[in-house]
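input
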Amino acid sequence: MNKAILPGLIALSLGLPTPLFAADALDPAQVTAQQEEALKQEIIRLKRQLLMMNQQLQQQQQALNNMAQRVLNSEQVLHQVSGGKTAPPTVGQEGIARPKIPSGTRVEQPVATAATQSQTEGGEDTKKAPDRGRSTEDVLQETHTVFSRKFSIEPSLSYSYFSRKDLILRGFLALDAIFLGNLNLDRIRTSNVQLDLTSRYSFNENWQIDLSLPFIYRENQFDSVGEGNSSQRYEVARVQDTLLGDISAGLYYRIMAETQDAPDWVWNVRVKAPTGKDPYGIPLLTSESGNLTYPSEMASGNGVWGISTGFSLAKTYDPAIVFFNLNYGVNLPQKFDDITGQSSVVPGEIDLGDYIDYSVGLAFAVSEKMSLGMSFNQRFFSKTRQRVEGGMWEKIPRSDTNTATLGLGATLALTDSLSMVTTIGAGLTEDTPDYQVSLRFPYRF
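output
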């Protein structure tokens, strides 16, 4: 009996028509056709009442939003009149309470004004950048800098392949038409496997340092036509070694954080130490026929100190991020006990020259855990100079190079802390490796 009376009391208190009976008081096995029809009518009536109450609730919420907006506008005017002595509160402050809304009810939010937008210390509006996915941050870390990670370690493994052919003429031209001498076709194929251990530490949101430690396995194969005085047989020599490369460290400073109209701007400076095996003074070996000459061991560094500086820009266009880098590097001249590699020791000094490089690219977030990226990198080297002890500086022919690489990559967030970054690069000039494949695993703490 109580179950049948309670819905009626509730209906009376709300000013609604009283239901004929309570549905939960009926026994489904004993419901007559008349009661079933009445039950259907009651369901229809209740749905209409629910729809009407929902509409009234939305109207009330809209009225509350309008009133709160009027309060914000009035306080903004007061803030301007008082010369900035009072700060206008946002919705939810100074006693403006938000009404409790039943779950599942859709409510329109008030329109944001200049008073509710975040401001910088100078009064300029800052861009509320969209939340970057984990995978996008990993790509951005390699092309720009991410200061939100306190400490991270990034082991990476890369493989590159380089092939080059040279036509060598040893002789002279007689009567401007006949060549007298040896004609050789030499080919050099280089395979490099490099393991890099990079660690990064951010002091705050503006300063960061990193340290990179490379280990290199290099295998060179030298081929030259002419074995046994045959034009179809090659003399082959292989040289391979595993060595420590040149260690480098970098310092990054955020000049300006990203705003609505300006990109994120970071300045950097890097120092490279000659910790690897330098290529100077390595003895040269000659085949039995004298047709092939090759080094006896491999180099893993350039043997000189290097300093570079530049800046990088990154701009968010949700869900994409565009970046641009520009750097200038200087290699300091270095003296060596031998710079020829021949039987006689020739001390001297090497100046590898300077270089300038730039890169542009795009990182696109497919999802929170996956992103795609593409980039173009180009570097220009000036000519290398050498000076024998007591002599004059002279430039080495064909030492000025131009390298260009087009890269495509994908990033996948494996866990909350670990990601996998894959990159494939294609060389676009003869001074660039034919292709390069790298795999990185950034882990942030």
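quick obs: The longest helix spans residues 33-81.
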